[in-house]
Amino acid sequence: MKGLLKEFGIDAINSLTMSSTTALKIARDCISASFKEEVFNDIQDRPFSLSFDESSDRYGPACLCTNVKYVKNGKIHNRLLSLDQIGETSTGYELHNIVMNSIFKGKENLIKENLIGVCSDKGSNMISKLDKGLTNRINKELPHVLVVHDFSHLFNLVSSYSIKKFPPGPIDLIKAISSHFGYSSLRRFRLRRIQSDMKETDFEPMYQVLSYVSHRWMSLLMTAERIICLWQSLEVYFDEEKDDTVNPLLNQDNYAYLELLIFFLRKINFLIKFFESDSHDYSLIMSKIYENFLLWASFIIKDDLLDKDYQDMIANILALPCENLEKLKLELVGYEIFKSRFLTKYPEFSQPHFYMTNESKEKFYETAYDFIIQSFFEIRRRVPFQKTILNDCEVLRLKELNKGKPQEWLSFQR
Fold first, then answer.
1. What is the model's pLDDT at position 394?
2. SS3 call for 148
3. Residue 259: how many other CB atoms lie within 10 Å
4. Does residue 293 contact residue 376 with C-beta atoms inside 8 Å?
5. Helix (H) or strand (E) run with residue 66 in it
6. How far, in Å, CA of 38 to CA of 347, rounded?
7. Are 338 and 372 in contact (CB under 8 A)?
8. Do residues 148 and 395 make contact, with C-beta atoms less than 8 angstroms apart?
9. Helices 231-240 & 185-198, crossing angle to 10 degrees?
10. From CA 246, how far away is CA 243, in angstroms rounded?
């Protein structure tokens, strides 16, 4: 597009008319083919990794998105290689056929000689426990290829499992408020009017309630943050416009829980956003993961494991049992020690809210305790902490190794 704009100018492009069918054919048969051939030329003599994701379209068929990542001239390139329509079934067998018999048809040598890693989410048609997923089939044909669960998906799963430790109230409040305003422009207008009446200056921003979408990674955090921002206006609004699904939940206890939820989600979503980046320096990966992992560990690990040098501390923490949550809990500090550590580090939570009873406060801190243990457990059992895997696959950074067989390169790394 930059080239077209530079050569023809915006006026010439705006005056161009064509049907959507013609535009689709040009994009698919001309532009796409040209981009794909350029990528194939780039990976002809250098190692590369592939990442796969299956995406659905409410207006059309599901597609398999294939990205390729490689290093060229010292820079990481993350390019869309292909977007292929999936048929009636999307089994690992069908996806494997798309990759080998469509995307790389006639270029099988590239896969065999230069592919070093594949990355996907953990859908059963991608990474299967029965070895029938797309990545399992590639790995069976090419044993040297490393398979990694996408880290953004991984940390989203950490978040999803840990959130279950929260009481239902704050999550139900988010859903109820989002639903209340979701399809009514009149209700949104009334909320804006209340905000306008409450503004102390003309420079204060006006906000709308965000729609909560459960399958979007950042949606829960963004919606919760917006509700906290609008809390006073929402109290006035629902005092005038009663809603049986919202009013019982719009209380100070849930306000405190929303603040705690936001605090925790920011810690995890930071890593999700980090791993969504295209071309940052992947030498930061281990430090970022350990930073987050040790944050949770610092609240729940016993002193004799923490009072060591950095490498010994990590080794001892990673040696803790992670097969079973209840077994892991036996190796961790109790609730009282956790509470003392947590409030020492984050004194802003020493008074979650003045209106909370002592019993409610204890449940509040117990929720924080359970959430942190669950997050620690999920990270420990899901993240492949072996450096070889992290450095070799989707999260690779090749240094002056643009050529050579992948088997030789992986052997060198190990």
1. 42
2. strand
3. 17
4. yes
5. strand 60-72
6. 55
7. yes
8. yes
9. 120
10. 5
Cα atoms in the Cβ-side hemisphere of radius 13 Å centred on 369: 20
| CB-based contact 86:95 (threshold 8 Å) | yes
CB 48 within 8 A of CB 115: yes
List of residues 6+ apart from 9 with CB closer than 8 A: none
d(CA 263, CA 170): 14
Angle CA 28–32–35, to nearest 5: 175
CB 62 within 8 A of CB 56: yes
Distance CA(196)–CA(201), nearest Å, equals 9
Q: How do beta strands 48-57 and 60-72 pair?
A: antiparallel
How many Cβ atoms sit within 10 Å of the Cβ of residue 70? 21
For 42-74, how does the pLDDT look when each residue is reduced to its tens digit (9 = 90+)?
998 889 999 999 877 665 678 899 999 988 887
Report the alpha-carbon distance of residue 372 to residue 366 in Å, rounded. Answer: 10
Q: Which ranges constitute the DSSP H helices of 49-167?
A: 92-98, 108-114, 134-141, 151-163
- Given a contact cutoff of 8 angstroms between Cβ atoms, the answer to whether 48 and 79 are in contact is no
Read off the amino acid at residue 218.
M
Structure tokens at 302: 């016993």
What whole-number distance in Å separates Cα of residue 213 and Cα of residue 222? 10
Angle (nearest 5°) at CA 152 between 41 and 311: 100
Residue 224 token pair: 């919760």
CA distance 233 to 207: 10
pLDDT in tens, 207-264: 899 999 988 889 999 999 999 999 999 999 999 999 999 999 999 999 999 999 999 9
Residue 149, H or E segment: strand 146-149
- Among 117, 151, 129, 147, residue whose Cα is nearest residue 379: 151
Tokens of 200: 């102390």
The DSSP code for 242 is -
CA distances from 287 to 57, 60, 65, 145, 370 (A): 37, 41, 30, 25, 25
Distance from C-alpha of 76 to C-alpha of 70, rounded to nearest angstrom: 6
**328 close to 322: Cβ distance less than 8 angstroms:** yes
Q: How many CB atoms lie within 10 A of CB 359?
A: 8
* Sheet strand arrangement including 48-57: 75-85, 60-72, 48-57, 115-120, 146-149
Instruction: State mean pLDDT over 261-273.
Output: 94
